[in-house]
């Protein structure tokens, strides 16, 4: 059949080729994923025209010429057409071939799920349609049926509904177990994340209590995962605090050089006209207060005396260890501390080198020309 949408130059008044279509508008991956998911959910109730859907639904509801009996729980019966459900599911087609009792009327059984869930499932095989309330009531059962009878499209629909609307803290344990059994790794991962993020609430749900009785090994695995995640969060928090501390120390070292070389506010070789103006070094305020305190403190020379003065001595020693040229350096006692390094024990020297390495590693890119490079510091 000729494609009426195909452009033909002979049909145009002027024999000129059409311009190419405009390039697609670029968007971020998150927006594309959300749009595709929303589109899937919107189309789940409408994969064909309304007339076609109504015809398939009427064929299923009226069951005219039905040649398959489907037995469900509570002695329920559903009539279906072998050609339709056999084309939709290879597993069901194989089950019908095994029934050789009545060649003109096949009989199969779908047990273990509610009768209404089986009816929704068979209806989906006809028209790919379902009611919103049916999906909310039987989503877990439909996920199981789609896996057992190999209906990938229905499986994707169920997973999408759980990911977007149906998954909550009350049913997450049940959905997690079903996702593991039904080979739905993405859904299982989302459930696992929800369990870790809301463990206190999830652990009090009925699903958790039932899992303790039916699958104690899975419960132990989840408890290990929760413990592992908590340890990771603690380590991450501790690492972030360490990085913040090392960054503050590096900023303090830069501010030291700035104060002693250029001067800042009331301290330094050059008097600043506007002492209240910002210099760009956040650590200047704290260092100026420490320097002023140290200059007038009477306890600094007493063993075990002023803690603030001790902190200042430590900052001065740290500067001397990362300073490139102590002879040209204007920071007080820089060269004296370098001489003092030679008399320290190996244990203290190793501890200081580790601190210097961590401080310098916070500024891997660029760095200051007045300090050593991180690659030059070795333990």
Summary of the model, kept short:
It comes from Brassica rapa subsp. trilocularis. This protein has 379 residues and is mainly alpha-helical.
Q: How would you state the average pLDDT, rounded?
A: 80
Q: What are the secondary-structure elements, in order, as H or E?
A: HHEEHHEHHHHHHHHHHHH
User: What is the 3D shape?
Assistant: rod-shaped
Percentage of residues in helical conformation? 55-70%
Question: How much of the polypeptide forms β-strand, as a percent range?
Answer: under 5%
Q: Main beta sheet, described?
A: 3 strands, mixed
- Any low-confidence stretches, pLDDT <50, length ≥5? 1-19, 36-46
Strand order of the largest sheet: 2-1-3
What is the count of helical runs? 16
Q: How far is it from the N-terminal to the C-terminal residue, by CA? A: 79 Å
For the CA atoms, what is the radius of gyration? Answer: 37 Å
Strand tally is 3
Secondary-structure-based class equals mainly alpha
Domain BTB: 66-134
Pathway: Protein modification; protein ubiquitination
Protein name: BTB domain-containing protein
InterPro entries: BT1/2/3/4/5, BTB/POZ_dom, SKP1/BTB/POZ_sf, TAZ_dom_sf, Znf_TAZ
């Amino acid at each position: 059949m000729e494609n009426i949408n195909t452009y033909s130059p002979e049909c145009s008044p002027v024999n000129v080729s059409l311009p190419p279509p405009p390039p697609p508008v670029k968007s971020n991956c998150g927006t594309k994923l959300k749009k595709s998911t929303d589109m899937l959910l919107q189309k789940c109730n409408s994969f064909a025209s309304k007339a076609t859907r109504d015809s398939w639904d009427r064929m299923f509801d009226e069951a005219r010429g039905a040649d398959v009996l489907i037995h469900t729980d509570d002695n329920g019966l559903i009539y279906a057409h072998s050609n339709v459900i056999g084309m939709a599911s290879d597993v069901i087609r194989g089950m019908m071939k095994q029934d050789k009792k009545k060649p003109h009327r096949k009989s199969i059984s779908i047990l273990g799920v509610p009768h209404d869930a089986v009816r929704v499932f068979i209806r989906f095989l006809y028209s790919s349609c379902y009611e919103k309330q049916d999906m909310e009531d039987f989503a877990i059962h439909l996920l199981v049926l789609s896996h057992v009878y190999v209906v990938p499209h229905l499986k994707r629909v169920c997973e999408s509904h759980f990911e977007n609307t149906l998954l909550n803290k009350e049913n997450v344990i049940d959905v997690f177990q079903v996702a593991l059994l039904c080979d739905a790794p993405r859904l299982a991962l989302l459930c696992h994340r929800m369990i870790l993020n809301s463990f206190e609430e999830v652990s009090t749900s009925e699903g958790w209590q039932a899992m303790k009785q039916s699958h104690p090994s899975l419960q132990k695995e989840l408890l290990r995962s929760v413990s592992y995640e908590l340890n990771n969060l603690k380590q991450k928090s501790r690492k972030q605090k360490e990085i913040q501390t090392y960054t503050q120390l590096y900023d303090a070292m830069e501010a030291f050089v700035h104060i002693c070389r250029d001067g800042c506010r009331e301290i330094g070789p050059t008097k600043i006209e506007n002492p209240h103006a910002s210099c760009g070094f956040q650590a200047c305020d704290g260092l100026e207060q420490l320097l002023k305190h140290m200059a007038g403190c009477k306890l600094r020379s007493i063993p075990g005396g002023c803690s603030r003065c001790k902190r200042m001595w430590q900052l001065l020693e740290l500067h001397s260890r990362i300073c490139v040229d102590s002879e040209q350096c204007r920071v007080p006692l820089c060269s004296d501390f370098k001489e003092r390094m030679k008399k320290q024990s190996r244990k203290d020297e190793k501890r200081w080198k580790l601190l210097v390495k961590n401080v310098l590693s916070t500024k891997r890119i660029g760095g200051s020309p007045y300090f050593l490079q991180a690659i030059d510091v070795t333990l």
